[in-house]
Batch of 2 targets.
Target 1
Amino acid sequence: MKFLIKRIAEYQIKKLCALPRNKQFVKLNNAKTIGILFDATDNNTFEIVKRFIEKLKVDTKNVHAIGYVDEKLRPNYSYIKTDIDLFNKKELKNFYQPQSPYIKTFIEDEKDLLIDINFNQKLPLQFIAASSKAKCKVGMHFPENEPIHDILIATTSQQGLGFYLQQVVKYLETV
């Protein structure tokens, strides 16, 4: 049954990728609004993403992140609520779809950049990425990400999150 639910979710994500949006390449220096999606289940990942957000904000960027906690309860992380929103398993509808109003707002807001940090390919984060109206979507190079993202960064989870974020910044600054 779980396999079937996952397959239906993957099909729905593919359908979302076909929705029209204003696609364009946006350099990091020119981006004024940046959205970040990440798996917030692990505290170490959360802290790395939090520091990355702080770094982007120094450059006067408007940054907002959505983190998914793959648990029934949210961990007790220390963070600025205006920068990061967290959601968990309790906030999912059928087929892994997030249902919180702040996620709907995140999706509808046409950000300049969407940076997807979804190493474990969590379906709720894929739903948000596929639905997002962001002009330019950046994600890890996985076959299932090809219809979702405009730019795919080829790294491995063994190289780590820090390396991936360096590659994202390097690519978006130089191209």
Target 2
Amino acid sequence: MVEAEDKGICVMLEGFVDATAMLRPGIYALLREGVVVYIGQSKKPLSRVEAHRSLQRRVHRNAAPGWLPIKAIPFDEVHVLPCRVEDLDIVERAMIDLYKPKYNLKLKTPHPVSTEFNLTIDGFTVPFNIVQPTHPPLLRRF
């Protein structure tokens, strides 16, 4: 289907999914049956996710060496959160602490992260870990 717009022609691809976020730096989440099993970061998430997928196939054939730095993670769904390269470490850490994925063993912490930070995506800023002011408890006097 082709639609004409004031600024030119816009091509709508029926049935396609926009995967542009996979080409930009970001945090990716691998899910298995609806559960987040791994959170990672990459300047090229598409390549990294494919590396996880191909390594998983090699593990099934017993052809994957154990010294590879990337993990073979069984997953059936991928989500990507685009972000600036400078923010990759802190956002990845916050997402791991939030979801506590099964395969992020080295970065798990028993307590939530309390570092405050803002993430700006396409002009929208989302605050994370904002500490809400606490009010003293109400005292009842009888």
